[in-house]
Design a protein that fits this description.
Blueprint lengths: L4 E2 L20 H14 L4 E3 L9 E5 L14 E12 L3 E6 L9 E6 L1 E7 L5 E7 H14 L10 H15 L9 E2 L1
Parallel strand pairs: 1-9
Antiparallel strand pairs: 2-3, 3-4, 4-7, 5-6, 7-8
């Protein structure tokens, strides 16, 4: 089932999400619905807060970007209760967008490499080192669990220049081909 995507301005996007356990109700259904929602909106990642559920869960399928970023080939993951346990000192800037902030793309500096601990959909504990655009995508979604949006990480001048657009989105004055909640 396609879920509505919550837009910037909604309080759920600013809450720090809570950890869950394996008894979380209807988890498999939520994960399936998140993938369906993400695919329908042409996204490569989607965090639970973006569909109004403030839990530490996100899904990624970045394979559509693998022509430009070969490390994304077959990069499909479910992250439950993820933690960044290490990161590089080096950063890289890439242009990012977000389903919760439609029509806005900005360059963001992120760690070039991160090591994550998380559980997969079968509650297998994983430790994974991610580099390049894998690391970028994972950090973007991880920020959603912390109540942080990519626009929080851009230069102040850029923020000022897009402030009116952000305010319009927060008021629902945006055209999306997918269902949204303000």
């Amino acid at each position: 089932m396609k879920l509505p995507i919550y837009l910037i301005g909604h309080p759920v996007l600013r809450k720090k999400a809570v950890e869950i356990d394996k008894d979380y109700p209807n988890l498999k259904e939520l994960i399936d619905n998140m993938f369906e929602t993400m695919y329908d909106a042409n996204g490569v990642g989607l965090a639970a807060p973006q569909v109004g559920v403030s839990i530490r869960l996100y899904v990624i399928d970045a394979n559509p970007m693998s022509n430009d970023f070969p490390e994304l080939k077959d990069f499909k993951r479910i992250f439950i209760n993820p933690k960044i346990i290490e990161h590089s000192k080096e950063t890289e800037a890439y242009e990012e967008g977000c389903l919760s902030i439609p029509g806005i793309n900005e360059f963001v500096n992120r760690y070039a490499q991160v090591t994550m601990e998380y559980y997969d959909e079968n509650w297998n504990f994983k430790t994974e080192k991610l580099v390049g655009f894998q690391a970028i995508v994972v950090q973007h979604e991880y920020d959603h669990l912390e109540g942080v949006l990519f626009t929080d990480k851009i230069a102040l001048l850029r923020k000022r220049l897009i402030k009116a657009k952000l305010n319009a989105i927060a008021k629902g004055k945006v055209s999306c081909f997918y269902k949204t909640v303000v």
